[in-house]
Design a protein that fits this description.
transmembrane, 17 helices, fatty acid biosynthesis, 0% strand, single chain, binds zinc ion, membrane
Length: 350
């Protein structure tokens, strides 16, 4: 990992006009990224990611049919196929839908958010968009707002938190959704409950009627295994890329380019997670936080430009491997996931 907040101009205080200069860095980088956007085709901007999601849906019919097989390797292949498709739809799909990246149309953006987050992801679209886009992205690593503390469960021991508890994500997610409906109108609450039930019941019905499951327990267990297949890396990725990095006070949040370059970290490319979670959650998380309107493929396309620009301007471009982060979180679990993080002040650039 390179760069640390302590390295940033603690040696003297800000020069005159430095704040303005830093502000223009973000504007300059934005102009460069927008130029790449304008020069990109529809396929690059949206088509490729929509096709990956389409392929995930198309792999569901063969997955249900394979699950009807009494031949164990075929059955396991069906399980794997459904688990991978489910991860792509509920992680990559819900994430892109929450940012409105799947369409230009306002109505379609709303439709995809409800479809992916509620029907497929068993969560509330309203709570998902508020929590992820309006809090986590707007207040990245700001104490008590977008600091990823929602992922912390200090009462759990590290091994349970890191490797066992994530398996309960498919069960916990709809229950958490219910607790987030308090401020919503009755119509919204009813819609969310109906959409979540529709998603869960559709998979159950298909397992019984297409895959030929004979017992309720068998079908429910199959749903749990498929839905929990990527839960462990899902929890890991959510904490690895923010927790342990500088946390800011809401009163002294640095300018956006500093906030994102200090508070976000990229993991290396990973064949399986690139497809299922998307580049914006794996190797292009910094790019995603700087430009949340970009699709996964566009984040990957602007990555060389962004990393070169930040390095040239002597701003951090934080990267670390999955295993290195896992080791860090395992050995410093108490410090990172139980105790409150110290507040960082970037001297001279507030
Ligand atoms: Zn996001």
């Amino acid at each position: 990992m390179q760069g640390s907040p302590d390295q940033s101009r603690e040696d003297g205080g800000p020069r005159a006009g430095e704040a303005e200069e830093r502000e223009t860095l973000m504007m300059e980088l934005t102009r460069m990224v927008q130029k790449v956007m304008k020069e990109s085709s529809w396929w690059e901007r949206r088509g490729l990611d929509c096709s990956i999601l389409g392929a995930a849906f198309l792999s569901l019919p063969p997955a249900f049919l394979l699950l009807s097989s009494s031949h164990l390797p075929h059955f396991l292949l069906g399980m794997l196929l459904m688990g991978v498709a489910h991860a792509a739809i509920t992680v990559k799909g819900t994430h892109l839908a929450s940012h409105g990246t799947l369409s230009d149309s306002k109505v379609l953006k709303k439709f995809w958010a409800v479809f992916f987050i509620e029907v497929c992801g068993s969560f509330s679209a309203h709570a998902g968009v508020t929590g992820h886009v309006k809090m986590h992205h707007a207040y990245t690593n700001v104490m008590g707002l977008g600091d990823s503390s929602v992922w912390k469960v200090p009462s759990l021991p590290r091994t349970i938190y890191l490797f066992v508890a994530p398996l309960a994500v498919p069960v916990v997610t709809p229950l958490v959704a219910l607790t987030h409906l308090d401020g919503c109108s009755l119509v919204w609450r009813l819609r969310t409950v109906l959409m979540v039930v529709l998603g869960l019941y559709s998979q159950y019905w298909l397992l019984i009627n297409v895959s030929g499951f004979r017992s309720v327990h068998g079908a429910l267990l199959c749903m749990l295994v498929c839905r929990a297949m990527f839960s462990v890396p899902f929890i890991h990725v959510n904490i690895f890329q923010h927790v342990g990095l500088p946390v800011f006070s809401v009163k002294k949040t640095p300018k956006r380019i500093y906030q994102m370059t200090h508070g976000v970290l990229n993991l290396p490319r990973n064949f399986l997670l690139d497809w299922t979670f998307g580049h914006s959650l794996i190797s292009c998380h910094v790019e995603h936080h700087l430009f949340p309107f970009l699709s996964d493929n566009m984040c990957l396309k602007v990555k060389p430009l962004v990393s070169r620009y930040l390095t040239q301007k002597k701003l951090p471009y934080q990267e670390d491997t999955y295993l290195s982060r896992l080791r860090l979180f395992f050995h410093k679990y108490q410090e990172l996931m139980v105790l409150a993080p110290p507040i960082t002040e970037l001297v001279g650039v507030q």
